[in-house]
Design brief:
This protein is an alpha/beta fold. The protein is 50% helix and 8% strand. The two termini are 34 Å apart. 26% of the residues are buried.
């Protein structure tokens, strides 16, 4: 049977944290686990990179077991508690990072761009990890609750961010109703200005250099006391002057343009958070939207839209 530790305190003989291979431990013991333990093991194996951000409660909710079951499982692996496992896993992940390193080793590019694009890839991957880390904050939970409770959600994007905003609005509409992308054809943002501030919320997506109209709209929404969520980059902290629901993602990489991949991840996770809170309501809404898509002949391969997860 694989062991999690050889020393009393999980330390190597030189006093450093002993490295572990949690994947090997779990895979070796998988046949001996109970059904609930197998589910926990599978969850950890599928989310090793995110495990440092997990809590006993979040793992229990994701797997559908009690928090006490998670505690017993971790102790059964030979760790004092979940914190002990996460601390020692950080050491292993930092030193291993094998999947990324293998990919980087195979990554080829002509004309001397290989090294710079390798660095860019590392920055991109790090930005995505940091985007996921936003989901552990209190303001993230408050934001998802806001987007669940608001009767109508208006989504705005400017210039290069317009596509991100439109994609977010169209996909959020599959989780809940009354999501409106505002293209501002009238030039007045009348749809938003005339809305009930107590029943509405606005999601604004923008990146540097920031749109003048976006800042003016944020000022107006603040004066109206209408809830505002801003998804932006980290080149300045302008959003906090208008709302505390600000999510800044890392976009600086080594390419001609800054990358919006992390912004897309934040928006996708926001949709997932709303759908998770809505539960069965989101599934019913998804089914209704799927039926409408079939009615209007919008999609090829409609079986994908009959999701059961």
């Amino acid at each position: 049977m694989a062991k999690a530790r050889s020393g009393k305190d999980g330390k190597a003989s030189n006093g450093a944290e002993e490295k572990i291979d949690i994947e090997a431990i779990l895979r070796a013991r998988m046949p001996d686990f109970s059904p609930s333990e197998q589910s926990l093991a599978a969850h950890i194996l599928s989310n090793i990179q995110m495990l440092p951000f997990e809590t006993g409660t979040s793992i229990a909710q994701a797997v559908g077991v009690s928090e006490m079951t998670v505690t017993r499982f971790v102790r059964g692996l030979g760790f004092e508690n979940l914190r002990d496992l996460k601390n020692r896993l950080r050491v292993a992940v930092t030193e291993k990072d094998s999947e990324i390193d293998d990919y980087m080793a195979r990554f080829q590019m002509r004309e001397g761009r290989q090294q710079m694009l390798q660095e860019s890839l590392r920055l991109e991957l790090d930005a995505i990890v940091k985007a996921y880390a936003l989901t552990t904050t209190d303001v993230w939970d408050e934001t998802s609750s806001l987007l669940v409770k608001a009767r109508t959600i208006y989504v705005v994007g400017f210039q290069a961010s317009t596509g991100l905003a439109m994609d977010f609005a169209s996909r959020l509409l599959w989780a809940r109703s009354n999501v409106i992308f505002v293209g501002n054809a009238s030039g007045t943002f009348g749809e938003i200005i005339n809305a009930d501030p107590k029943q509405s919320a606005v999601v604004l997506v923008d990146t540097a250099s920031y749109a003048t109209r976006g800042i003016k709209l944020a000022e107006m929404l603040k004066s109206m006391e209408m809830p505002l969520v801003i998804v932006t980059d980290k080149f300045s902290h302008w959003g906090f002057a208008y709302t505390r629901f600000v999510f800044e993602a890392h976009t600086h990489v080594k390419t001609f343009w800054d990358s919006t991949a992390s912004l897309s991840v934040v928006l996708n996770l926001m949709i997932d958070a709303v759908a998770t809170k809505l539960g069965p309501k989101a599934k019913r809404n998804f089914s209704m939207m799927s039926d409408m898509g079939s009615l209007f002949g919008e999609f090829v391969g409609g079986s994908y839209l009959r999701r059961n997860d």
